[in-house]
Fold these 4 entries.
Entry 1:
Amino acid sequence: MSNAPAYKRILLKLSGEALMGDDSYGINRTVIERIVAEIAEVVGLGVQVAIVIGGGNIFRGVAPAAAGMDRATADYMGMLATVMNAMALQDAMARGGVPCRVQSALNLEQVAEPFIRGKALRYLEEGKVVIFAAGIGSPFFTTDTAAALRGVEMDAEVVIKATKVDGVYTADPKKDPKATRYQKVSFDEAISKDLKVMDATALTLCRDQKLPIIVFSIFKEGALRRVVTGQDEGTLVHCD
């Protein structure tokens, strides 16, 4: 099987939950180092990598206190959690020898650059990984939507969503032993069947911009490399 990359530039959507491994919340150092090693392998193939990171692993720890809180306030707290994750990921990449920059949609210049599209594109062309934090900087929008938007803005060829499940299934594989993995599924089918690929806003944006999505498991060793080299890994969500 060829190791030549199928994509020149990707947008990797990394959930906050992926960073905590089997812990109840927070960042698991062993897990984040393994994820960085997977990303470094792809960068080594010459693929330009942009990342949108979530904040669920940190926000989960304060979620009980956020119950009943004003939605916009809670969403801003979630954005700040993504900044913390981006800083942790940047630090792990620096220790792993991967050049990396963090850009934030919120103005936090002491810890991250502001999001500037032209500068982010230049970093990618220079071979640096760019991590986008704080979603799109507005409440009521998920980091899935941020991934779709940044993917379009960065002229990415594909949005790759890293999850705990190795693709999109006909039903929840944990509950239904007969559930089967889709190798490919259209955007319209994913939306009409509510297959939980991403939220509806993100799916619709990707569909309208003809930006395919691949859903895969970040916990399968070598899976990210197999995705970017075009092997049968995960589920491709595509236009008809």
Note: The chain has one domain: 9-238.
Entry 2:
Amino acid sequence: MNKGAREAKATLLLTGHNLDDETQSLLMNQFKGNMQLSAKLGPISGAVSHEKFVKKVKPLYYMTEKEVALYAFLKKFPVQFVECPNSPGTFRQQVGELLNNLENSYPGTKQGILKSFLTILPDLKKQYENQTIANCELCGEPAAQKQCKVCILLEKEKK
């Protein structure tokens, strides 16, 4: 996405991440003790600047998955909402079910998680602002490791 946005000379990349996506990611990072990853979250993504990064913005940040789907349906957008075929049994799915159960029993849980997170986000970003971003040794795109996630996935697919 980043490379395509850069090639299109875009200054912003809008993503479809929503309240459900964000709270799932936050809890997953919390459960795994990975606050460095959480520092990259928020309505405007990223904790570190890099000349090859196009700023990512999440305009649906406060909307639930159901609200997004309903809006798309009412506006007759040609979109199909299907669950990822790789989702069943994953950590993300289990965290999502946990959050949905909590939200059903205690409405506002997801918004509360997001609101709490946003109060600490500036400090998290500051804490991790000096981390370095390298370039993927295979494609040259920004990466936190020797290879970017896309190249790692493509290598797995080849095998």
Note: The mean pLDDT is 90.
Entry 3:
Amino acid sequence: MVVDDEFQIRRALKNALREVAERVLEAGSGAEGIDLAATHHPDLVVLDLGLPDMAGAEVCREIRRFASMPIVVLSARHSEEDKVSLLSLGADDYVTKPFSTVELLARVKAQLRRARTQLIAPTEAPIVAGDLTFEVGRRSVTKSGEPVRLTPIEWNIVLALVMHAGRTLTHQQLFDAVWGREFGDPQRYLRVHITNLRRKIETSPSSPKYVVTEPGVGYRFEMP
């Protein structure tokens, strides 16, 4: 479903999304988007923040009250604060305008792939990402068949990222998932552990392909 008040953008997105969708619903307002999401339960929502009747953030919040489908936000706002706020409200990805339909389509495919994997893959099944294999039940990871020794904190960080592969997790979301407390400096705590984690699982830690930084926002695990 595409929620945008501009007809031309809705039509362009609808044409682009036909590559991955049998049907694309359109909503020109936030209220209509919420109603359609509740009625039709689309596999994914592309949500523009600049809506005429209500804030896009409020639409995101309302949809998250009853649905878990991926939400990809479109916005002309580029600030890190806006990105952190939307991701904290439950958005799964954030694309700034102007954007290319090629980039948007790639992000949509990644979110659909993640959502379908979560539906069909039992947690005890190994998760394979390139040369990495994660076995959740055994709390183990191998690289090219060789075991990688992670600390408990490193394991908890990479597990949170892998289980939400393709989705940027904010510093605070990761901090809460790993440490489970509200005090402390999330960025400072995470920076050291992410550096050590990259040294162990990345072929080139200085140019990571798995654990990717979203500057000022958080981290994302990229599936090859």
Note: The mean pLDDT is 87.
Entry 4:
Amino acid sequence: MKQSKKILPKIYMGLLIIFFYAPILYTVIFSFNESRSLTRFTGFSLQWYEKMFHDRFMVESIINTILIAVLATVISTIIGTIASIGLSSSRKIVRAVVEQVNDLPIMNPEIVTAIGLLMFFTTLNIEKGFGTLLIAHIMFCTPYVMLSITPKLRSLDPNLADAALDLGATPWQALIKVIVPQIMPGIISGALIAFTMSFDDFIISYFVTGNGVSNISIMVYTMSKRINPSINSLSTIMIVIITIALILVNVIPILKERKEKKKI
């Protein structure tokens, strides 16, 4: 009886791992398939990777996705950080109202946000394209940055900035050299969330883009109606990049700790 109690959780965990990672493994394997079949592996080939890099539409979508994600992340992180620091010094009622407004894009269904942005750009006669796509991404990324930074600001000593000013620092120096380093973990996590949200977005991007500008999610949607194994190749490259990034993020702190222990 005791052995069955120990085995059952392991079986359950194993089934969960298979459920979550089997589709990823399937995608990686069939990205090297010789034929177009997505159900039968006929032989090893790199042709779909070659075709992916020779497909102009796919390459442009990848470049647009990365460019918009990077720009949206940088701009939303700057805006979110400044707004969060400003709110931390505001009155409680102002802070409460702004925080409630900031939560609306997060709680709102994406389809509602997408339609709202579409109507907004249409009303102002703004031509949809790269610019509208970037503005939309900055709009829905900024609340996530603020949501990540605000708890870090609340944990700070409210007299920290005043102490820096009393010691001779200028307001700019107090901000850059005292406040920002203290909330840097929140800024980094907010930027990573913003990048992920921008890179992965489909619904809002689909409604606000135009003039042949598309990102990876829109490209995959348009290509999903016909079999194209190059999508598997693109997915595999993204999986490899994310895996390497996760390994580095987890390994680098461990290596730093070991170096510090050796110095001690």
Note: The chain is about 80% helix and 0% strand.
